[in-house]
Each structure stands twice: as structure tokens, then as C-alpha cells.
Design brief:
alpha+beta, five-stranded antiparallel β-sheet, 3 helices, binds adenosine monophosphate, binds zinc ion
Length: 135
């Protein structure tokens, strides 16, 4: 399925040009236009899925395998010191393009890439509440 109003559908199909690092029948991997660091890239499936909530299982599995291949190659190409894999779902989580994608963000010693959170505390109350609801 494609969405005629979706920019990533158009990028994945090649209708909108992109800096493509890799392409196969299922995915296009491109450089992000607003990179968090040098080499920040996106894995974009050619089929339209809004995010992880609805992506096809087989495609999701292929996407993470492709991420593994890409970071193994790109760490050598870029000479980076680490990698973050980020995947945002829905607006409160930072999703701005509503077509599933995986961010591959190279990390360099001493960089100021602002990924992270304030470390909280897992209380017994919250732990028990979640465990109860998971049943
Ligand atoms: P997210 O916030 O997880 O939805 O990520 C969307 C990402 O897409 C952001 O990092 C943007 O910089 C990137 N982006 C948006 N439009 C384009 C585009 N035309 N080409 C490359 N990257 C884009
Ligand atoms: Zn799309």
C-alpha cells in the first residue's frame, strides 16, 4: 500500500530524490536531511505503514536485519564510535513523518547528540500496577 500524500512513500519510490545509500525491493536507506550527527540515515520501507504499531511482521524483521547490516558497514565507512537505533511512534514520542522508519544515528566520542532521558525510579506501586494490567 502507498499513501499518495506521504513524503516517505515518494522518497522510497524514487519520485522525490534522496541521497540513497542502499536500496532493495523492500527498502530505501537515505541520509537524513536534518542529521543529528554525520551519517545519520533512515531505513524507509517502500510500503506505507504508519509506524511500529501496524507494520507487517515480516517487514519489521527485515528492517532490523537491514539495520544490523547497515551499521556494520557504516561504522567502518564513517569511523564512528557507536550507534543509536531510534524508532519513534506517534507525536508524543517525536514522530513527525507518519511512515515507519528507523533512524541510524552514528555517535562520535564527545559529540553533543541529545538523546537520553532523566533517570527515574521504579516504585513498587508502578511495578505492581503494570504487572497486574499485563495479565
Ligand atoms: P521522525 O521525527 O522520527 O518522524 O523522523 C523524521 C525524520 O525525517 C527527521 O529526522 C527529518 O530530518 C527527516 N526528514 C524529513 N523529511 C526528509 C527528507 N525529505 N529527506 C530526508 N530526511 C527527511
Ligand atoms: Zn508513506
Amino acid at each position: 500500500m502507498k499513501d499518495k500524500d506521504c513524503i516517505f512513500c515518494k522518497i522510497a519510490s524514487g519520485e522525490i530524490p534522496s541521497t540513497t545509500l542502499y536500496e532493495d525491493d523492500d527498502f530505501r536507506v537515505i541520509l537524513d536531511l536534518g542529521p543529528a550527527s554525520k551519517g545519520h540515515a533512515l531505513i524507509i520501507p517502500k510500503e506505507h505503514y504508519r509506524n511500529l504499531y501496524d507494520i507487517d511482521d515480516e517487514l519489521a524483521a527485515k528492517a532490523i536485519i537491514l539495520a544490523k547490516k547497515m551499521v556494520n558497514k557504516m561504522k567502518d565507512v564513517l569511523g564512528c564510535d557507536g550507534y543509536n537505533i531510534v524508532q519513534n511512534n506517534e507525536e508524543p514520542a517525536g514522530q513527525t513523518v507518519f511512515h515507519f522508519h528507523i533512524h541510524m544515528i552514528p555517535r562520535y566520542k564527545g559529540d553533543n547528540v541529545g538523546l537520553g532521558w532523566h533517570v527515574g525510579e521504579l516504585t513498587d506501586e508502578v511495578k505492581n500496577e503494570i504487572l497486574e494490567k499485563m495479565k
